[in-house]
Write a structure and sequence with these properties.
The protein is α/β, with parallel strands linked by helices and 315 residues long. The protein has helices at residues 12-15, 20-29, 92-100, 146-150, 152-157, 162-175, 191-203, 228-240, 266-272, 299-306, and strands at residues 38-41, 52-63, 66-77, 81-85, 107-112, 115-121, 130-134, 215-220, 258-262, 275-280, 283-289. Helix 8 runs parallel beside helix 9 (266-272). GO terms for molecular function: ATP binding; ATP hydrolysis activity.
């Protein structure tokens, strides 16, 4: 998981555990999951698009001679729960990193609340939207405790006291169903617990700010490597932190404005998202509501939904 915006050194209380490489990596990674900090150009909004939080327009991306994205366009609106599906290697994780500001498109444009992003994330704070990226591997720092991992960005860049941050970390962990784990190291956690710690890290924010921007969470294979029961727990947590979903583990409504999930798992498709985008060979070849997925007449979607070896998708 990631977060957006950071600059100062870690507080002294973290120096005993965080190596210089940890701190350097932390400043790069965490600038994608909590407070957005990118350069934008002003763009007037159309009234009917006033609820669009993130838009990709004709996005292309290549790595060397390998063309990953070939003109991807879509919008994420306020309140949406969107899934991105498709075969492996079709650019699903790449489009997440472009939306989060970790990669720049070779061609095409990304708009955040109607403002065109120019370049990658930076340390220049702007208002409008917080973007969180939850990595497939959880991306926790092995040398930091759970408390230090979840509160990393606040320790580094906020004006909150250590006691305030510690209390907020405890509350956020409880909201994802974890209690009494603040002093554990990642090596002492199960796979499912690591996923929940990563989710908590993407949810926490500076509560002392006068204005709290809406947040969009981007999940990269959040249930990968988990057993069916642990997957169900994570899928339900994704729903619970959504402001239009169920209550979280503390019985409070969710605070996430919208989210996008990259997944291969049918259970995640059915339980965690409402609308689907099918990415194949670098393009969106189908989109529709979740209940339309298994009844689509598109042969690519049919093959993916049934797992058949016969069809246009070849390995």
């Amino acid at each position: 998981m990631l977060s957006l915006s950071s600059s100062s050194l870690l507080r002294p209380s973290l120096h005993c555990r965080a190596s210089s490489s940890d701190r350097s990596l932390g400043r790069k990674l965490f600038c994608c999951s909590m407070a957005p900090a990118t350069k934008f150009h002003n763009l007037s909004k159309l009234e009917h698009d006033s609820d669009v939080l993130i838009e990709c327009r004709d996005v292309y991306k290549s790595f060397g001679d390998k063309h990953i994205l070939k003109g991807v366009s879509f919008k994420i609106r306020h309140g949406e729960a969107v899934g991105v599906i498709g075969p492996s290697g079709t650019g699903k994780s790449t489009i997440l990193k472009i939306m989060a500001g970790l990669l720049a498109p070779d061609k095409g444009e990304v708009y955040i609340r109607g403002k065109k992003r120019a370049g990658l994330i930076s340390d220049e704070e702007i208002s409008g939207l917080r973007i969180g990226l939850v990595f497939q591997s959880a991306a926790l720092f092995d040398s930091l405790t759970v408390r230090e991992n979840v509160g990393f960005l606040l320790y580094e860049s906020s004006k909150m006291s250590e006691n305030q941050i510690s209390e907020l970390v405890t509350q956020t962990l409880a909201a994802v169903g974890l209690k009494g784990v603040e002093n554990r190291l990642p090596s002492e956690l199960s796979g499912g617990m690591k996923k929940r710690v990563a989710l908590a890290r993407s949810l926490i924010f500076d509560t002392t700010k006068e204005v709290i921007e809406p947040e969009v969470l981007l999940y990269d294979e959040p249930t990968a490597g988990l057993d069916p029961i642990a997957s169900t727990v994570v899928e339900d947590l994704i729903r619970s932190v959504h402001m239009t979903g169920e209550e979280d583990a503390l019985g409070k409504p969710g605070k996430i404005a919208s989210y996008l999930v990259v997944t291969h798992q049918h259970s995640t498709i059915q339980r965690a998202v409402d609308r689907l985008l099918f990415l194949y060979e670098g393009k969106i070849v189908w989109q529709g509501m979740t209940h339309e997925f298994t009844t689509s007449a598109n042969p690519i979607v049919q093959q993916f939904a049934t797992g058949s070896l016969d069809g246009p998708i070849r390995y």
